[in-house]
Amino acid sequence: MLSHQVVSAYQATEGARHIRMEIRDSDLKKEMAKGLVFVKADLHQIKTVPPKVTDIQQFGIGNCYLLSTLSTILERDPAYINKILKINENGDVEVTLYDVEDPNKIFTYVMDPTKIVGRNRFLPLGRNTHSHDAIYMIEKAYAFHHMIVDQNKYTEDQEYIIEALLNNKHNIHKAFAELTSHPKKTLPPSFKNLKLADVESTEKSFAKHRVDHKSGLTSGSSRVAYASLLGVKALRHDLETEIDEDYFFATFLSHIATFNASYLTGEKLPDNINTLLEKKLVDKAKLYLNKIFGDYRSPEAIYFIRCIDFKTSASLVQENRPFFEYIHVLDSARESIKTKFNKYMTLTDVSNVEERAKQKIFHFIDKEIPYKRGLKTHTTSAQDENYEYIKEQLQQGQLVTLSTKEGVGKKMVKNRISKTGEPLSKGLAGSHSYQVENCYERDGRKYVLLRNPWGRYVRDYEYKSKTVGGHKIDVLSAKAKLQIGSFSLFYKVKAKLFQAFGIKGASKRQNPRSFPISNPAVPLAHSQDYYEQNGFFEVEISDVTKRFDSISLTSKKGSVTPVIKPANRSCILAFLRAMISGNTMGMNHVKNFFNAMLLDKSDPQVQLDISAALAIHYKLIGNEELSAKWLAKLGTNWTLEEAVSHLQREYQKDLPDFTHILSSGAVVANQKRS
């Protein structure tokens, strides 16, 4: 059994429980890391070089959930890792993590300054290949933290007992003596009746549930990782899904015919539907009636039910079947299907409802059945909702990851890129977690910008020509690429060669990434070349909706704020408060203000924030030239609205909402200065 020592258990300050555990390599080598190689960590790198997102390279351990989470944190604030990882005066590495449900429970793991590199220090087998040792130290601590905290295997009382066991090297009698003699104010009331048998059973449970280093990292949750790394509440949000077309065009109509038959027997329709639903026969039918008509009890829904008897249901299924193959491609197929519904939706005694019911059915078919990717800029309700949710969270400053379904394509292949076992299909890995960096549009199509924690193997798109139903169409085809930089020039040359030689499948349409980015959720932090060369890639929103199943995100605004010296932050806040209240300054006054406040302009984050503030400030006082000058310092893609959003996101904990300042009209004409 591991003989870790708790240096200072039961340390209570301001309601927090702070547990410090020594995890020595000598103990790890006996059990959790038996047979693994330990290599001295580069403490100079850890002390002096902030880790970057691109230092994260998953390879041999299935902890994408942890690495994608850590990527979002480092992208927001590379210095954050210094808050949870420190090198103490003895040269040991200390990593501080939080309880998943209670951020007042704090765990500090004191470790030897070594990283675990699998079973062979020269071959990346059973380990990841990060280029910064701080990442390895986080993993080393998290494997143990996962075993103790994340798996929810222990009660509150057992956590106290485990502390005492670790503190006394698993000597049951000494642990029992410590627990029964400790000041009662730090222990639950139930410990008044603590028995030696309780300590013995907890020791057995701890032995049973311990895991090795690799298992301690494998198969976790980004929600749990956010809570552990940041000490904040985190959420899992399930993505909206597309409609089940097979159900809508067949079983749904059969269920409607069942309602119809009951209605004709004289029962009250809504009451009958509720009876059927209580028997759980047609839950899905109610959902679809609500989707189509807004309420399954509405006059339009009742009219539709009265039209569809069993004979009509069978006729609709039979007559629509020839068009199903082309409904995602040809407008004519949709029109033919709508014509069939129009044919059977006719009841003369309620003709005043007829047109409204038909229009809702037609709108549902047009809106909710997706087109083949790339054919149109059309998006379904599910795609719209997913995109807007991601966009809103990013704009609020939340950290976000996206997880794929297990099945990410019709044809999946064995993972030969990483040794973590996920199935692969056209640049996506199944049951895999990705960092969400941004979302935006290109040529009217919506994309989400992601990063694979592998640092390679991403999805890309190119147009291909296909012939469907005698019509030649261009569809946006997905493909995998190993991350070797920008493919923009490659695609242009390839397209011209294919067209010149008449190669089948060549399309004259431009590669989607040749169109400029518009309407990003937040300003782009890097150039397109940077993203393409470092494992980032764009996923079209229909793929997000079809191939991904959930989002993990922080639920607290300002969970991670870039570190700025307190004096600099106070200075910027003072300027922003003055600007928000309508107190404006001329150019000389601004310069004198920042000089008087001793602003350190050498800090890159300060430069960014001041440039954004001054671009807005000069716009408000009518100096367009200076506003454009300071806006240009932010980067080529920034707009004034994005400058406002950036400052609101970074200073939201200290300022009111000022996102509408550009249109508020708070600055009057006589306040303008040159």
UniProtKB/TrEMBL annotation:
GO molecular function, a single term: calcium-dependent cysteine-type endopeptidase activity
Origin organism lineage: Bacteria, Pseudomonadati, Pseudomonadota, Gammaproteobacteria, Legionellales
Domain Calpain catalytic: 422-557
Highest taxon listed in the record's lineage: Bacteria
InterPro entries, sorted: Papain-like_cys_pep_sf (IPR038765), Peptidase_C2_calpain_cat (IPR001300)
Organism per entry: Aquicella lusitana
Biological-process GO terms, alphabetical: proteolysis
Descriptive protein name: Calpain catalytic domain-containing protein
